[in-house]
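chain and backbone:
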Amino acid sequence: MKHPAADIPLYIKISRILKEEIESGLYKVGDLLPSEEELERRFGASRTTIRNALGELEREGLVLRRRGKGTIVQEPKTAQNMNFISSFTETLREKGVQVGTGIVTIELIPAPPKVLAALGLEKGEKVYLVQRTRLANGVPIAFMTNYLLARVVPGLEEKKEALRRVGLYQLLEEEYGLVLKRAVETIEAYLSGPLEADILQIPEKVPLFHTVRITYLEDGTPFEMVISIIRADKYEYRVYLEGRPKK
């Protein structure tokens, strides 16, 4: 009987071996992998096979290939699964990333027109504006702007230090007993300009995600509008799909 592994292309086998070595810490972030010539000798493989293997690692976000420099191990992207409502902090911590928070501001303000429309509020109704920079292993990778229905989270301005320690959604569940039932999120890609470059300490024209999420409570109340700018080289979205639509 033919062994299943016999059907796996050699370049996939090589990429899996190198991936295990990276994840085990043999090669650390910033290290160079052995040259293509060295890998050819090690695996007894052709140059094309080695390049295909390295291409697999690059598609997974584990390495970056630079002409004249070689193949550099990079910090893997954090992936957010799109079939759950999760906070940015929860997603990062689940991947073993050390999460930090820059300056946090919490203000009680009249809902701006765009928030009035998104949450179906009456003119003059108050929301909490929460803004903060999120750090991953000490590097700024996102800037979050949350508008939260004030009447549902009274005294939120007193929770600033708690917000530094835990994700916003965990805080809402533990401190206010809220149940977040569903959310609708729009994701667009664009290049950083002067404002984003200053906030995230990056050059201009770096790929970013711009996301807008509307979150609903268990009773169907639109509760939150959150606008995020996120470094696309440090983060990705993974969508879970199942089945075909009924005709």
Notes: The chain has a mean pLDDT of 86. The two ends are 41 Å apart (CA to CA).
